[in-house]
Amino acid sequence: MDKIKIGLIVNPISGFGGPLGLKGSDSDDIWDHVTDVYNLPSLKRTYDTLNNIDSKIADKIYFYTGSELLGEYLLKQFGFKFKIVYTSKTQRTTRSDTYKLLNEFKNQNVDLIVFAGGDGTSSDLIKIIDTDIPVVGIPVGVKMYSSIFPLSPIYSSKIISEFCTYKDIEFILREVSDLDDRKINKGITSTKFIGYLNTPLNLDDNYLQESKGSSISDEGNEIDNLIEDFNDRYTNLNSYIFGPGSTTNTILKSIDIDGTLLG
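Below the sequence we write its predicted structure tokens.
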């Protein structure tokens, strides 16, 4: 029986910058903040995905991946058969490593690409893969706008399992969007359309998230109500935890506090 060839690529640093308040994970010095490379969010979520692939189809899969944190480290923890088709010179991988590994997947004629990352990683796939090879995303980014991602790593594993189980699986093009850096620098959260990626159409229609808008202009009344409700409850005696985003930033401005759009 022919094996199903799956390319696995992990963007190790994806999702790391948000919790540190670094407004994403794209800065040049992001790796300088990492103290434990084996405890990164992307690795944990990829582990959850691999761990929940249906054990009945595990022997049908042959993985292709990159060295160390690009995928090898995780696959070694399971019984999957795999081959390393690209070796990075350092654990501190960059976009260049992503491009090179994706090109190797094309050379190997993989049937499916599983990638752990966020909107930026999705954009990288469009540049190299476009819609030629179907993909399954593992959601890792802090705040993702693209509709290519399942709702959780568990749903990612379900889609992979269905892809490997059913011969007549259908596919659907899903939108990839990313934040517009030029507007972010002006304090405005706005997304730009990047393109489409091809993904298996799961049996249940609720595995994938919808594209997220970034503007609150059509939700003015709802935001006003949230502000009014918060101000009714607000007291200096309590502590409040606010996440990043345009909505929370607007509420904080109502009490003269500068929030953050990205973390």
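The first strand starts at residue 4 and ends at 10.
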